[in-house]
Amino acid sequence: MKALLFFGKLIVMEREIMFFQRKVDRAMKKLHEDSDAGRAERGLETKDGDEREVPELEKNDLLAMVIAAMITIVPVALLVLVGFGLVIYFSLIH
Q1: What is the distance between the terminal CA atoms of the chain, rounded to a whole angstrom?
Q2: Under a CB-based contact definition with an 8 Å cutoff, are residues 2 and 14 in contact?
Q3: Which of 10-14, 16-20, 25-29, 63-67 has the largest mean confidence?
Q4: Cα separation of 45 and 42, whole Å?
Q5: What is the DSSP string of the chain?
Q6: Pairwise CA distance, residues 15 & 39, whole Å
Q7: What global pTM score does this model have?
Q8: Tens digits of residue pLDDT in 39-54
């Protein structure tokens, strides 16, 4: 087993690489199982055949989404602009 001394901390290279490799292998297996090729291997219907029902928007849904976006975005944008303004003020004028 190889080990590396890095800033006073002993790092065991092979064990960490093996642990990471198992995670990668598990993720790749999961991706394959969820893909169309994996579904075809198991004899299941592909996702293209699944038709999902899209809910209809009601009359004021778009207005509600715009208001919610403004409530979320505008305060953050104002804080960023005030921050930039303070940086410019203290660096150039003050």
Answers
A1: 59
A2: yes
A3: 63-67
A4: 9
A5: --EEEETTEEEEHHHHHHHHHHHHHHHHHHHHHHSHHHHHHHTPPPGGGPPPPPPPP-TTHHHHHHHHHHHHHHHHHHHHHHHHHHHHIIIII-
A6: 33
A7: 0.39
A8: 777 776 655 555 566 6
